[in-house]
Amino acid sequence: MAFTFRYATEADVDEIVAIEEASMTNPWRRDNYLEAIKSDHAFILVAVDGEVIAGFAVFYLTPPESELPDIVVSHDYRGKGVGKAIMTEALLHLKTRGIDTVYLEVRVSNAPARALYSHLGFEEIGKRKYFYSNPVEDAVCMSLRMEE
């Protein structure tokens, strides 16, 4: 499946929020996405299939580091390589912005995401006890040091 990638705009926020609310037990608020879109220190990369957003990822930028606080693939597109495609494209964008290390947290129970991040070269660097709620769960902290 081939996707196009672009930075999210304010016009995308309703669709992004709908994907988030359908997928997450503690969804982000609309304001969080608008703030990221308007910021010089963040971006949201969307994977688009025709006119439909298949998934998105939010990145906060504090060069030379970046954090991935939110990535979600629409239910209709799960298992089709969207997460990997978004991450692969995002890493290229991050390199052009002078980022050399990316950090993230992922639920201990989220085996598909953990496998994807490991496949992309992320390494486990620690755990955060009780990081998530609804249900309460630990987070695995991971980082990726990108090559020059």
Layout of secondary structure:
Elements: E1 4-7, H1 13-23, H2 30-38, E2 42-49, E3 52-62, E4 65-73, H3 82-96, E5 101-107, H4 111-119, E6 123-132, E7 137-145
Parallel strand pairs: 4-5
Antiparallel strand pairs: 1-2, 2-3, 3-4, 5-7, 6-7
Describe the structure in your own words.
- It is a single chain.
- The chain has a seven-stranded mixed β-sheet, sandwiched between helices.
- The chain has 148 residues and is α+β, with helices and mostly antiparallel strands.
- It has helices at 13-23, 30-38, 82-96, 111-119, and strands at residues 4-7, 42-49, 52-62, 65-73, 101-107, 123-132, 137-145.
- Helices cover 30% and strands 39% of the residues.
- It has one domain (4-145): 3-Layer(aba) Sandwich (Aminopeptidase).
- It starts with a strand and ends with a strand.
Give a nutshell description of this structure:
The protein has 148 residues and is α+β, with helices and mostly antiparallel strands. The chain is 30% helix and 39% strand. It has a single domain, classed as Gcn5-related N-acetyltransferase (GNAT) (Aminopeptidase, 3-Layer(aba) Sandwich), CATH 3.40.630.30.
User: What is the CATH-assigned architecture?
Assistant: 3-Layer(aba) Sandwich
Radius of gyration (CA) equals: 14 Å
**CATH T-level fold name:** Aminopeptidase
Q: Name the CATH superfamily assignment.
A: Gcn5-related N-acetyltransferase (GNAT)
- Report the sheet with the most strands, covering strand number, pairing sense and barrel closure: 7 strands, mixed
* Ends distance: 29 Å
- How many domains would you count in the coordinates? 1
Overall spatial form: globular
| Mean pLDDT rating | 95
- Ranges where pLDDT stays below 50 over 5 or more residues in a row are none
